[in-house]
């Protein structure tokens, strides 16, 4: 493996890691349970059974326990995942919630499965939340890339129409899930996904999604994509396919990995991962490789010049080639 390949390998690995870690958990601050409490055991039990349900309907709610130890749980898979994919995704997401929210009485997470399909969803609480649209200030995440300024007028028209139509399509569908694509230019396509938990009424689902579209537009108009997740709905759009396109059965698969679009937190109410960290890590790693390659070129030159063996530079090279 030469240096360029090595560099490429590390960078592709970074992208995959970012792509797979898009799941975001949200641990509520409405109360904690203590370790070994009945509530805690009920929570762990119900979360670990969610994955074994037969999710051909893609949606499942359940309760366990009594009175103050009662746990309400809901699991959901996107309309396009098989029973096995659904179970795997719910399994991973339930485990992640238990790790990230070890003692919180309420939490939810939109988790991503390994096939880069639309996410599944897991939520639990000590109160009944089925059918309730919750007041919630979501985290708006947007891509850093900009839409070309000469396309903005056209973009706003196409994007607005697409989102309006999609709110209607998602809120009236049985599983409250819809995706839609629209060409922006000959070479660029807008891909959008909207989803509510199916226990919401059509009007509450529509309210929730419309609110997200407005929140995104206010914050991030002109950016190349964005993502908003809350307890009742999930909204994402990109200039690349990030879900299985259902409208075209003969669409090519598997889809390419997301391009290296970095994500920034533009609004943060305390939930989830800090995306800024990811950006910093990516830049640090790129900087690190630049320095290593400069050092490598420098050492090569130096070795060519003076034919005498220099232990230090040899050590440096050996260290480097250990990675081969
Ligand atoms: C849920 O737990 C919190 C914190 O312990 C408590 O204040 C609240 O009343 C509980 N809700 C229900 C419906 O039991
Ligand atoms: C619950 O526990 C977390 C730590 O896991 C803590 O940060 C938080 O303040 C606690 N919340 C309440 C309401 O006690
Ligand atoms: C929980 O229970 C287990 C066994 O019942 C015990 O070993 C453990 O120490 C307990 N943990 C706490 C924090 O009480
Ligand atoms: C969940 O994943 C674990 C491995 O991490 C596996 O042992 C278990 O059987 C899975 N549960 C279901 C219901 O698929
Ligand atoms: C789930 O249910 C469907 C029909 O309702 C059945 O065909 C399928 O075998 C079931 N899958 C599992 C894993 O039980
Ligand atoms: C699941 O949610 C529905 C409302 O969408 C409710 O009628 C039903 O009782 C819930 N099931 C359980 C087991 O709580
Ligand atoms: C919508 O959600 C609210 C809670 O925010 C609830 O009171 C209301 O009943 C819901 N509306 C419908 C039609 O389900
Ligand atoms: C987008 O453009 C491609 C060709 O560039 C065409 O095949 C496709 O049907 C168009 N899609 C839509 C939704 O208009």
UniProtKB/TrEMBL annotation:
A Pfam family that the UniProt record links to this protein: Stress-antifung
Domain Gnk2-homologous, residue spans: 21-129, 136-242
Positions of transmembrane segments: 278-299
Highest taxon of the lineage: Eukaryota
Keyword Transcription regulation among record annotations: no
InterPro entries: GNK2, GNK2_sf
Cleaved signal peptide residues: 1-23
Keywords: Membrane, Repeat, Signal, Transmembrane, Transmembrane helix
PANTHER family for the chain: CYSTEINE-RICH RECEPTOR-LIKE PROTEIN KINASE 11 (PTHR32099:SF92), CYSTEINE-RICH REPEAT SECRETORY PROTEIN (PTHR32099)
The protein's name in its UniProt record: Gnk2-homologous domain-containing protein
Species name: Acer yangbiense
